[in-house]
Amino acid sequence: MRLHQFFIKNFRSLRGQSFESCRFSCLVGENNAGKSSVLQAAATALNRPAQLAASHFYDPRSPVEFEFCLADVDDRDLARVAEENRQRIADLLVGRTLTFCVRYTLGDKVSLTAKRLMPADIRYRPEAIDAAFAGQKGAAAIIGVFTNAFPEFVGALPSAGFTTQRDSKAFLREQIALLRKEQFVLHEGPLPSGISASITSLLPEPIYIPAVKNLNDELKTTQSTSFGRLLGLLLDDMAPDLGAINESLSALNTMFNRVVEGEQEVDRRHVKVRDLESLVEAYLGENFPSAKVQLHIPPPELKTILNRNGTYFVSQA
């Protein structure tokens, strides 16, 4: 999945701008031309903070709007979404693309909508269909709805007709699905209920690396820095190839901590770890005879080891 098209409106120095990316894109321009604003806009749209400060609005009287199109969405991307929401997000796909709209009004929380293919004829849209059938019960009333609102489908109705709104709407959806491709348009609408959290796990994670005077600050490997986040993503991607290292870390954990195997807790800790635990318990027991001590040392992880006060340096010949 990749960010394909990006539209920006009313953000920082950008009144309105569009950007189309490829596998590797480069923004070129003079100082204060808006290059950083485009990158910050992309990071803001994908991260979707709850609110935007007034300084981010080109015109505070108008909303900040981002529209971004994600191309080449495949099953691996959808697999990151909670299983119960995958199909509902897949239903938003137009071919292999997803289009989302992020909107901020000054002082209000962010809103997220999606664009999907909808019939150009508004009579065929869900809200119009619901309105047409509202309060209509029985075969005669339902025939009346088709005759008045959808006469083009009357000839396709089964001879027995329909007695429930549910069956009538299902039939109508089947007929609408048979319309020609040119009878559909992209239409912005609310997300299906309950999938907002799943969208976060689906979207790519932007890493914005600003220009800094002290490059060493950005090259530290803690997760709060840009390089640390890149390192974390790299390790996650390399996980299948790090089996031997993770086995060694697991063995190291067994030397420091009690571990659970099956349903039993086993103690194969190093003798010095057990002796230290006994010594601390003995000292504590002089004043609190019933006290028990159990040492627990955080299990070692490769990401944690690399992140701890580490810095990577870049040299230039």
Strand order of the largest sheet: 2-1-3-4-5-6
Give the number of helices: 12
> How many DSSP-defined strands?
8
Mean pLDDT: 85
Q: Tell me about the biggest sheet?
A: 6 strands, antiparallel
Q: What is the terminal-to-terminal distance?
A: 35 Å
* Secondary-structure content class: alpha+beta
Name the helix and strand elements from N-terminus to C-terminus, one letter apiece.
EEHEHHEEHHHEHHHHEEHH
Q: If you compute it from the alpha carbons, what radius of gyration comes out, rounded to the nearest whole angstrom? A: 29 Å
Into how many domains do the coordinates divide? 3
Strand content: 15-25%
- Per the principal axes of the C-alpha atoms, what is the gross shape? extended
CATH class category of the largest domain: Alpha Beta
Q: Using the coordinates shown, work out and report the CATH topology of the largest domain.
A: Rossmann fold
Looking at CATH, the homologous superfamily of the largest domain is P-loop containing nucleotide triphosphate hydrolases
